[in-house]
Model the fold of this input.
Amino acid sequence: MNTNKLKYTGKGKSLTKLFLGLTTSFYLSTYLFPKTAEAADHLNLEEGLPTEVEDAYPVPYQGIELQGAVKYDCINGKDSFVIEPRLEYGIAPNTQARIAVPFKFGNAESDGIGDVGVEVFYNFNIETLKTPAFAVSVGVDTPTGEDSAGIDPTVKLIMTKTLGKGTNLDRLHLNVGYTFNDAKKDDERRNVVKAVAGYSRRLSPQTILVTDFVYEQEKEEDEDTYILELGIRQQATPLTVWSVGAGVGLSNDSPDFRVTAGIQQSL
Done:
C-alpha cells in the first residue's frame, strides 16, 4: 500500500549489517551511558508504541531516549513486518528531535530499508483545567531507496487533555497530520491527511492502557485506511518502558489485523 520502497537486491547484506549495528548499539548504550537520566515517562505516548496516537509532550531537555518499534500487518492474507529503531533527543526546552530508520520485510511489499524520517517536535504549553496541551511536529521522509523519489514533508498538530482529577489520569488525545507528496505519480494523491483520536488511562502506577481510532489516506488514490487499536504500556524499570498492542482494520483498504511491540530506554 505504501510507495517509495527499496527493493531487496544485492544490498541485502549491507542492510542486514546496518540493522545488526543499530540493534547492537541500542543494547550497548544501556550499559555504556551513565544512568543519570530522569525516570522514563510511561505516560508519554509515542507513535507506534504501542498504537498510532501520540501525546503533546516531548522528552525532557537534554534527555536521550532510544526506541525500538516492531509492527506486523496482515494485508489481504500477506505479511508485512516493520522494525524501526529511533533516537529522540531534547534539543531545547519543550523541543525534541527524532530520527527513525524503518526496515521492511514480508511478502506484502519489497524487503529493505524504508524512507528515513527526521522530525522536530515542539510543545507550546502545559495543559490547565480548561486548556489542552498543544504541540506541533514538522518532519520529512527522505528518499533513501532506489525506488524512492522526492522529500515528503509532514506537519502534525497534537492535542492532549486530562479528564477530571482522579488518580487514573484519563486523557484524550487528537493528532491531525498533513503530508505533501513531493514526487507524485499519476495514480497518487498530492495531499495526504491522517487523523488519530485516542484515549489513555492509568491502570496501575506502572501500567497504561491506550486505545485509538486511526483514519489515514494512503498515497494511492481512492485508498483510505481505518484501524481500531488497543495497547498496554508497562514501566519495567525506572528507565525502561515496554509496550504491546493489537489492531483491526475496518475497511477493505485497511490491514486485516495488526500486532505491535516496542521498547523505550531513557539514557
Summary: The longest strand covers residues 78-92. The chain has one domain: 12-266. The two ends are 36 Å apart (CA to CA). The first helix runs from residue 12 to 32.
